């Protein structure tokens, strides 16, 4: 009995030997290299002992020379276990089926929990999620990961400021922070209106208060425009003072540029990965593109509540193309102007208006166009002040 | 005569050179763990075995082990491990 486990794996048989000279039989076995263990005597001429399954044939040869009769009374070990398994095929199949079902169910989404949202926002979120394929009963491999879902939700639903997305087990938890949109009339200001920057006043609409400047006046930053004090009575000043303000911007634009552009063609490969070894299960060809980008998506398989060390990996190859862009002098100039205008508009409040544009300076240096522009803008320059 | 002379020679060697006696003289080495195990090396085969008695052939003479509920746990050409409740170990000279 070198190792009990080895015996269990190889399979062993309990033999009952009956007849005279059982001891001689055991001696013969030992001399013929047949491992014998757990020898027991039951009465004068009966003994039982264990031998390995692979030694059964040799035991028969040995026993032929003795006067003993052999009976095989018990079978134990892995080979017999397998045999039993085959006869109880249904049970085995049932176990496999059960494991498969648990496996599939562990990889599904079973709950969507949204917290901190008003009913209508919650409804919208659910609707968006459904569009993304996130719903009860969806398999987790085919949906985006939480970060992507978070980004998409924030992009698509404008009434939420932030949303926390967490996948815990089989449930998605969403923590919503809604925008508290301020009421329009809450613009309570100070007792004065002052200029926010240097300007020439073009128009004035004073609702409440005493104007201290008039149209075409040149005002500097911080200068009082409207006072809320009328006959020693303090009021909140309210109104709009439109003034012409000036902005300067510089744009540098290369005449020639190269980009990597996606052509829209792509190829997918699917793998099952264990540690660092990836086993392809779908998509065996090499991508036929000369230039491509690789997107990898790795997700563990789950069983019950554990992440298995087996991963499903999707690799997407997207074809890219080098695109060259070159401008002539005039085109570059126009483009630079457009860019500058866009940039300025992003900076200005919505009700501002660009009145005029002047090119101060334009030059070509190192294959780049450098343009300096001057803008005249009409905007509200009044800001409340205590 | 030669056999006896050889025996003497071996005994002298083990005494003087401090060699283990069981190797030089082919004697059995018996290890017992309380009453429950007995482990015999250098035996020459099983003579009789029942649940109360085990008789082993040695190079010289026999070894008789008596007790209760004997089970041979392992048996190899020169080793045997017996389990049970051992009460006597007797050498029988021929």
From TrEMBL, chain B:
InterPro entries: Spore_YabP/YqfC, Spore_YqfC, YabP_sf. Pfam families: YabP. It comes from the Bacteria. This is Sporulation protein YqfC. It comes from Parageobacillus thermoglucosidasius.
């Amino acid at each position: 009995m070198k190792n009990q486990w080895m015996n269990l794996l190889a399979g062993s048989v309990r033999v009952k030997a009956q007849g005279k000279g059982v001891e001689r039989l055991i001696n013969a076995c030992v001399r013929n290299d047949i491992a014998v263990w757990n020898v027991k005597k039951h009465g004068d001429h009966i003994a039982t002992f264990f031998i390995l399954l692979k030694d059964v044939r040799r035991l028969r040869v040995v026993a032929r020379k003795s006067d003993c009769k052999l009976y095989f009374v018990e079978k134990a070990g892995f080979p017999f276990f397998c045999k039993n398994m085959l006869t109880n095929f249904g049970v085995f199949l049932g176990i496999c089926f059960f494991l498969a079902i648990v496996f599939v169910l562990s990889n599904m989404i079973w709950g969507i929990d949204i917290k901190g949202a008003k009913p209508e926002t919650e409804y919208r979120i659910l609707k968006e999620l459904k569009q993304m394929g996130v719903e009860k009963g969806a398999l987790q491999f085919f949906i985006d990961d939480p970060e992507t879902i978070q980004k998409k939700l924030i992009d698509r639903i404008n009434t939420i400021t932030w949303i926390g997305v967490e996948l815990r087990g089989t449930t998605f938890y969403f923590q919503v922070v809604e925008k508290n949109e301020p009421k329009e009339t809450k613009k309570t200001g100070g007792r004065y209106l002052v200029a926010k920057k240097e300007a020439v006043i073009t128009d004035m609409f004073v609702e409440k208060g005493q104007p201290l400047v008039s149209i075409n006046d040149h005002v500097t930053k911080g200068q009082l425009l409207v006072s809320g004090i009328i006959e020693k009575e303090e009021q909140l000043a309210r109104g709009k003072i439109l003034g012409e303000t000036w902005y300067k911007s510089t744009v540098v634009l290369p005449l020639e540029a190269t980009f990597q552009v996606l052509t829209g063609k792509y190829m997918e490969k699917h793998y099952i990965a264990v540690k660092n070894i990836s086993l392809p299960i779908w998509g065996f060809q090499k991508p036929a593109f000369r230039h491509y980008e690789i997107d990898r998506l790795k997700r563990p398989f789950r069983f019950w509540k554990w992440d298995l060390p087996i991963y499903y990996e999707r690799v997407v190859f997207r074809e890219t193309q080098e695109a060259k862009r070159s401008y002539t002098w005039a085109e570059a100039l126009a483009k630079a102007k457009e860019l500058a205008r866009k940039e300025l508009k992003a900076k200005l409040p919505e009700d501002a208006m660009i009145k005029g544009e002047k090119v101060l300076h334009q030059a070509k240096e190192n294959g780049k166009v450098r343009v300096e522009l001057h803008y005249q803008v009409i905007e509200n320059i009044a800001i409340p002040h205590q | 005569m030669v056999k006896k002379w050889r025996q003497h020679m071996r005994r002298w060697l083990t005494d003087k050179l401090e060699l283990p006696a069981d190797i030089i003289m082919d004697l059995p080495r018996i290890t017992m763990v309380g009453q429950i195990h007995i482990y015999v090396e250098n035996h020459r085969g099983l003579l009789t075995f029942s649940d109360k008695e085990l008789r082993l052939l040695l190079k010289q003479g026999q070894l008789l082990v008596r007790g209760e509920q004997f089970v041979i746990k392992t048996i190899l050409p020169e080793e045997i491990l017996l389990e049970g409740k051992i009460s006597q170990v007797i050498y029988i000279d021929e």
